[in-house]
């Protein structure tokens, strides 16, 4: 084959696709038509039906090449179709590129070489490798060469492989079909016996109509060239259309089964002593390593749900489980962060960290080393011996975050921790928390009423509505991280969720008149202060009240 992918097909290209006479009968008018057939096959019979369609005949290079992005030294990923059940990518393999040893996140997939050649090396996992860290892999079998039209399919039980373009062609184009979207995968280093979780990003996302729209018909060729203003409007409308198409593919209903959940909330309801129905029939499953935002207006029960996960309140109905065990109270496997930093004012930054580590039983040397490591991680070097009142609000929250990370609980529960910060400092904390999650992949449940904040931070947004508190939508956000507040796709997602919240304001949930109260922010749920605040037109409070004590420091029980 000619080294340039734009060159003509050689004889071996045709030879590589010789099958029965009826295999070449299937003609595809476009890549959109081909993807449509794959969707029908997936609905009919899953991966085996997809494989059958892909074996029926080679996909013409001319239909796929406009979607491929070829760059020397790297391979590129172009998204052409994605929904909650299937993802289709076109990969361009530049000269010298190579995909490291990797798996496919336990899912079925098919790979078809469209142009050039691909070399595939298979590996087997010997020890470890189920999570980031130690992983021993070994190569199995000879290297395989996939000629144009060749298909390589893998199910969820198969092991690992590495891929690179063939030495003869130098470059290649391939089509990849996954039976569910994949956003991250484990990448293995055989030399150092190590693996890491890598977030997968698209180099570009294209509509299936993009290449066709760039071609002009003979009748269009004789039309006058549009002026600058006309071209500007066309560009703007095209960009808006692409953003809307992207939003359809990046905000989809989350589907998490109870069997695969680290945190499982089933049929939960909670009623306070003043007959306020804070939560009603809440069902939520959260996988290990997910960042989930509970989003909704004040009074929708999101803080009540968070306190139930922390073990600070016992719901009046339903079940709340962690790793399959009922949550009976606070524990060291969960840590709760509040809107205030809750630092001891008489202790320095270092001493605040070392205090909670001492409660965990660490030696003095271990406490000092770990405290310094996390102070450096949140970029507070030089402030180790500073008292909290000498720090800015953002620096106090960094200290609280460093303390939470030093404790190393499995689950972090965060109750609007950045709500009191100014906009610029909050943006810096968003960037820091994104980096923390991408590097540690802790399970985080974050409460907020800010739509943009939720979409920037989380890979799942649970939209809640009040009176009674309930879940409106559980949405998976499939945007690459890190994210910024001005990303066009994120702005459009925020608009859609605001419309959803606006519509929910006019919806009144069932219940008697005495049940349609709200939980007052800043008051501990379940206390006397959380009771009725008085009747309109009356003087004084309806009953005795007490102020909420400052939340204690996260300690060995993982409490507040």
From TrEMBL:
Gene3D superfamilies in UniProt: Jelly Rolls (2.60.120.10), P-loop containing nucleotide triphosphate hydrolases (3.40.50.300)
Superkingdom of the source species: Bacteria
Coiled coil, from the record: none
Entry keyword set: ATP-binding, Iron, Metal-binding, Nucleotide-binding, Thioether bond, Transport
Listed CDD domains: ABC_NrtD_SsuB_transporters (cd03293), cupin_CDO (cd10548)
UniProt KW Transport keyword: yes
Gene Ontology molecular function: ATP binding; ATP hydrolysis activity; iron ion binding; oxidoreductase activity, acting on single donors with incorporation of molecular oxygen, incorporation of two atoms of oxygen
Cross-link (3'-(S-cysteinyl)-tyrosine (Cys-Tyr)): 109-178
Composition bias, Pro residues: 551-560
Protein name, as recorded: ABC transporter
Lineage: Bacteria, Pseudomonadati, Myxococcota, Myxococcia, Myxococcales
């Amino acid at each position: 084959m000619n080294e340039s992918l734009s060159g003509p097909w050689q004889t071996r290209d045709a030879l590589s696709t010789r099958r029965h006479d009826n295999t070449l009968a299937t003609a595809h008018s476009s890549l959109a038509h081909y993807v449509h057939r794959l969707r029908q096959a997936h609905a009919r019979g899953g991966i085996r039906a997809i494989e059958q369609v892909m074996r029926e005949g080679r996909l013409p290079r001319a239909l796929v090449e406009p979607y491929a992005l070829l760059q020397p030294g790297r391979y590129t990923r172009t998204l052409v179709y994605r929904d909650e059940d299937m993802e289709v990518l076109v990969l361009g393999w530049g000269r010298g590129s190579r995909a490291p040893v990797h798996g496919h996140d336990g899912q079925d997939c098919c790979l078809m070489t469209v142009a050039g050649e691909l070399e595939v090396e298979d590996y087997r996992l010997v020890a470890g490798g189920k999570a980031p860290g130690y992983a021993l892999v070994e190569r199995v079998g000879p290297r395989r060469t996939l000629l144009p039209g060749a298909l390589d399919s893998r199910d969820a039980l198969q092991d690992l492989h590495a891929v690179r373009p063939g030495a003869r062609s130098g470059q290649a184009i391939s089509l990849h079909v996954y039976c569910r979207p994949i956003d991250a995968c484990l990448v293995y280093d055989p030399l150092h016996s190590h693996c890491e979780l890598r977030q997968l990003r698209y180099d570009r996302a294209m509509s299936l109509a993009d290449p066709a729209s760039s071609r002009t018909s003979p009748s269009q060729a004789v039309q006058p060239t549009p002026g600058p203003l006309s071209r500007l409007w066309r560009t703007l409308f095209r960009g808006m259309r692409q953003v809307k198409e992207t939003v359809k593919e990046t905000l989809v209903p989350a589907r998490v089964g109870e069997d695969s959940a680290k945190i499982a909330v089933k049929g939960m309801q909670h009623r306070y002593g003043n007959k306020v129905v804070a939560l009603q029939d809440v069902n939520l499953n959260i996988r290990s390593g997910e960042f989930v935002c509970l989003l909704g207006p004040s009074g929708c029960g999101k803080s009540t749900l968070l306190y139930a996960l922390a073990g600070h309140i016992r719901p009046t109905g339903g079940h709340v489980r962690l790793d399959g065990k009922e949550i009976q109270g606070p524990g060291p496997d969960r840590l709760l962060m509040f809107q205030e930093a809750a630092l001891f004012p008489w202790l320095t930054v270092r001493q605040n960290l070392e205090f909670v580590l001492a409660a965990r039983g660490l030696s003095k040397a271990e406490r000092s080393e770990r405290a310094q490591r996390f102070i450096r991680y949140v970029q507070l070097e030089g402030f180790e011996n500073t008292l909290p009142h000498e720090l800015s609000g953002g620096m106090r929250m960094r200290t609280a975050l460093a303390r939470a990370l030093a404790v190393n609980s499995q689950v972090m529960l965060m109750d609007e921790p950045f709500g009191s910060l100014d906009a610029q400092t909050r943006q810096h904390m968003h960037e820091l928390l994104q980096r923390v999650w991408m590097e540690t992949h802790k399970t985080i449940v974050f409460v907020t009423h800010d739509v943009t904040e939720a979409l920037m931070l989380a890979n799942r947004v649970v939209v809640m509505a009040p009176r009674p508190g309930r879940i409106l939508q559980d949405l998976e956000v499939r945007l690459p991280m890190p994210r910024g507040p001005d990303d066009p796709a994120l702005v459009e997602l925020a608009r859609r969720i605001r419309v959803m919240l606006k519509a929910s304001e006019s919806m009144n949930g069932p219940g008697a008149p005495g049940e349609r109260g709200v939980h007052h922010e800043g008051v501990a749920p379940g206390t006397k202060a959380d009771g009725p605040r008085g009747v309109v037109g009356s003087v004084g409070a309806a009953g005795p009240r007490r102020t909420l004590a400052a939340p204690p420091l996260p300690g060995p029980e993982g409490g507040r």
